[in-house]
Amino acid sequence: MASRNTCVAVYPACSHLTVALQGLREAGCDLGLVSVLGQARVDAEQAVGFFRSGGRFHYHGPQAAFWQALGGLLNTTAVVRQSEAVLLIVVGHLAAVMMRETMDSEVGGGFSLHGAALHTIGIPRDGIIEYEQAVQNENLLLLVHGAHEEVEQACSVLHSEHQQVTVHVG
Questions:
Q1: d(Cα 55, Cα 152) in Å, to the nearest integer?
Q2: Helices marked H in 51-104 — which ranges?
């Protein structure tokens, strides 16, 4: 049976999330268990592109250096246009889960595509609503999904006086 343990931290800026990832790396956490979800706002005149070449993710758009670095670090990447002005960017394990959800003709449950992916990995409905709202408010989600011990280790690294982390155990 697949693991349904996930810790989620919400960050207001790329710099905060980058520090958190560095902490996970220094603590020896398996970055293969990590996913990042956020969005990029684009205007009609802005050229946006993304592709994978030579095993590397290339992205031209808002916060390009941040997303390219994540794409190289966490490997799997999905970019989905949510509206004319908003791209949803998912890097890591959750990207593969989300893309499998696109193959399912019925995402269902009233969830967005990324909400359905969160549900698949064991996030409860009220958490999904909270996290979808956080992303809409231009925050970034950092998720660690794996065995109970791995998730608890990540939680202890990420949690601080200034950072709340929620653990969902399934």
A1: 31
A2: 64-74, 93-103
Quick one: which H or E segment has residue 24?
helix 14-26
Does the domain spanning 5-40+91-168 belong to CATH 2.60.120? no
Domain extents for the chain?
Answer: 5-40+91-168
Counting as low any pLDDT under 50, the low residues of the chain are: 1, 105
Spatial contact of 153 and 27, defined as CB atoms under 8 Å apart: yes
Which of 22, 123, 54 has its CA nearest to residue 131? 123
Report pLDDT digits (tens) over 114-132: 888 998 898 999 999 999 9
pLDDT digits (tens, 9 = 90+) for 32-41: 999 999 998 8
- Spell out the alpha helix ranges (H) of 75-139: 93-103, 113-120, 125-136
Helix or strand run (H / E) with residue 14: helix 14-26
Q: What is the dihedral of CA 97, 99, 101, 105, to 10 degrees?
A: -170
Give CA–CA dist 26/24, Å, rounded: 6
CA distance 81 to 94: 17
- Are 162 and 146 contacting, i.e. CB atoms less than 8 angstroms apart? no
pTM over 0.85: yes
